[in-house]
């Protein structure tokens, strides 16, 4: 038996085994596909809370042990989600989604942290439900704290501002009117995984929006999904990612972003 | 304006308001309906474990502080799920599902507990996947620990024996062969609700099947659902309910059931 | 046997039983008494963090769903810990400890909440370690979040500002200098007890001091004790109590106190 | 300045700095020393429960995925705590403490696991309180599940059989009489530490003694201490250690030990 014959026989065997294993695998049903609207719950409606007054230009600056992710001047701490340069625009001490240029993320990666971030919906915002000032803060690139204009704009409760997108509805809706700055303070503990990649402990998050607790040590159930059910995949430290949602809404701005590793 | 007129006017107004509120309510989308197969996950397959040997007639009896729910003699601690008499059959120190007569539940209600229960799939069981020895233990009438013959019978992982049905797949599959007794030891903490009915803390459960931990302080996400997503509704102490699944499988038997309030 | 004789005999028997039960009880050792210094841990020292800048008169006001516990005008929401009138002094939009008059507490009682409170150490504070600006916020009258001047004043780590007193040291020390206002934001979940008075779940608390997380979903182990070990006793909703520590320190002031039930 | 002079000067400087730093360190108070009796709580007494009957020679054997740590034949899975050979005696399918030879531990190290272990107090045991059949199972060499004869032998509740030693009293006392085998089933999750050595999550443990839950997902507060308060120090996977308590009690035996990594 010469070498070529062995090679051919081996190849044939491999093809047969593959075909067999696929046939076998096809024997196992896959979960039926879902639609977005299956995980959108409008009821009960979230109560509106008017947040406390705060002098607009008197926002708190970063504590001395924080990493300043945006100090109003440039995007030196950020890059495009694909690793290229970030293309969002910087002006007047804020940066703004540059529609269609894609998400941006921090160059540094984080595990457990306290994150401070402010965002502003443009005063002339239009649209409704999810198509009104939609963006998002993806903790560790996977777990979305929703950014959306829900000032007099109702959407599904588990997808409005302050929600862990499609996982946990906010306790209240303390959104400020378009044109005002909203303040997010987020305390996050990363999930932990075992050496074999299985889940040891879920991520948890506390979210304070404009001084009002909207998520209270919420357990995150896995990646926040537009379609289907959340699940975990093992990962290590990862970036903060901000979403370019790409819909026809007016551009959303961010300022005063800092993070403290915990 | 006389009384009759007031009454009629009020009624008319009420009807109008109701119509208006319904019209308004109809304005809010409802979640799209789901199908059972959307929450059935076959992969990855659960590893089989051969449980330890145990002399069949040497099962552990109840500790002195336990409430004996079945001592082999009668159904005095049980009733039909609708409150009428339980119609399952008692023989040879066990009771057996009487197909089509409906679920049975304990007359007593429980909150936090340790539950011991043994079950046997008949030796001549037929069928496959979910249609093979299907029953269930509903903790507090809501949260199902699956009973199914998964000895050489694959089904979706999150619906096989040892699973919290469609919520949490078992860590392992230590099922004994049909005709043998399987032993469940379940440590359960009930959910707690606030006075306004909102959830304070989720239920947790540890499940040991034939001496092998299959659920390790698992957080229960809400009612276990055949179709759709789990959610909580406020409740107090409730019964243990056993399922008459009603399919053409041979009848499943139970014995040696006791519970310790914790 | 007449009535007087029965009465005397009964009394004698009761006395004998009491003596016997005490003798019996004395047979069981009691834990040896502890001293305060046994639960005071100075090492490792807590890192100092300079908090962010905030315009002093631009503090955030109460959200619309908050109960305002002090709006700068009067002590109408407070009373002496013994239920009599609160005797602390109100001036310039703040109230101040009136040394020796005793603790004050809210008239309303609370379970789970978000609490905002600001405090100021007088600029001419003297003393050191615990004898420098000592007060405290007792959540549900039992669990003390420490108030102390730790600006350039070291004390045992588990007893400094931001600590759960003698239970959990703060993660950082973001204290402002005497004369400045410090801001506490506290998210608290009450312990839950079973019907028999045993503990179901421990209290948890997240504490943010001057914008810096100092307690991150910390589990409270029981009543905060000056001497000895913490333990739980069953209780329901209870007040927020502020401490008149009574040492020769200058008086501490409070302002802008509001609470949101959760 | 020659090399020898530099060397001497540097040495002198180093000594001075050390002396200075020690002097400085001495300036910080150390916690006052405690006595054992300060952490021994006899009240309330733990309720006795008579465990269920079990045929003595019908104990459950190891599941197929378990690591058998003792199969009745030899100490091949064990070594002396100092790494030398284990000197305990093997006879009649059990091994027995060889008083004065020291603790033994598993050669393998573990993180999260389910542990099964049986122990027997000799029938002619003497002594009382802690001096009666005292041994212990140290999970990860640090966290002691108490082994003690508490059949008609009272001791401090947080130090009796089923306790996490001096941390968590058992829920019940289901001890069998001397001469009988007692069965421990232990479900343990290791603590997790951050890269800087600080604690991320505490260890938890569920303990079932003779079929009765005695610890229900108990949070371990740190190393179990005879004197003083528990605290955590960062560590990785570690052995199961069994204690040679060294008191004049009769020797304790162990059998049927297996562990499943989780």
From TrEMBL, chains A, B, C, D:
Signal peptide: 1-25
GO MF annotation terms: hydrolase activity
Domain 3-keto-alpha-glucoside-1,2-lyase/3-keto-2-hydroxy-glucal hydratase per the UniProt entry, residue ranges: 66-260
A Pfam short name: 3keto-disac_hyd
Coiled coil segments of this chain: none
Keyword Phosphoprotein included in the entry's annotation: no
Entry keywords, A to Z: Signal
InterPro entries: AL/BT2_dom
Domain of life: Bacteria
Name of the featured protein: 3-keto-alpha-glucoside-1,2-lyase/3-keto-2-hydroxy-glucal hydratase domain-containing protein
Organism of origin: Flavilitoribacter nigricans (strain ATCC 23147 / DSM 23189 / NBRC 102662 / NCIMB 1420 / SS-2)
């Amino acid at each position: 038996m010469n070498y070529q014959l062995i090679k051919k026989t081996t190849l044939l065997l491999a093809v047969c085994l593959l075909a067999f294993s696929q046939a076998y695998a096809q024997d196992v049903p896959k979960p039926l596909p879902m639609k977005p609207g299956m995980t959108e719950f409008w009821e009960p409606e979230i109560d509106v809370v008017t947040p406390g007054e705060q002098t607009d230009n008197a926002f708190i600056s970063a504590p001395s042990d924080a990493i300043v992710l945006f100090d109003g001047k440039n995007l030196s701490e950020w890059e495009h989600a694909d690793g290229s340069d970030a293309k969002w625009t910087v002006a007047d001490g804020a940066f703004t989604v540059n529609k269609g240029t894609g998400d941006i993320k921090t160059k540094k990666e984080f595990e457990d942290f306290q994150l401070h971030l402010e965002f502003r919906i443009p005063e002339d915002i239009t649209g409704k439900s999810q198509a009104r000032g939609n963006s998002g803060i993806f903790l560790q690139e996977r777990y979305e704290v929703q950014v959306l204009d829900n000032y007099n704009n109702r959407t599904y409760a588990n997808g409005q501002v302050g929600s862990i997108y499609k996982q946990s509805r906010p306790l209240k809706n303390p959104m400020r009117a378009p044109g005002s700055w909203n303040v997010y303070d987020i305390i996050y503990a990363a999930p932990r995984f075992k050496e074999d990649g299985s889940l040891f402990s879920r991520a948890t998050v506390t979210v304070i929006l404009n001084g009002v607790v909207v998520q209270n040590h919420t357990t995150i159930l896995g990646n926040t999904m537009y379609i289907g059910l959340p699940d975990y995949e093992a990962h290590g430290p990862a970036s903060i990612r901000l979403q370019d949602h790409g819909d026809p809404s007016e551009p959303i701005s961010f300022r005063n972003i800092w993070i403290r590793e915990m």
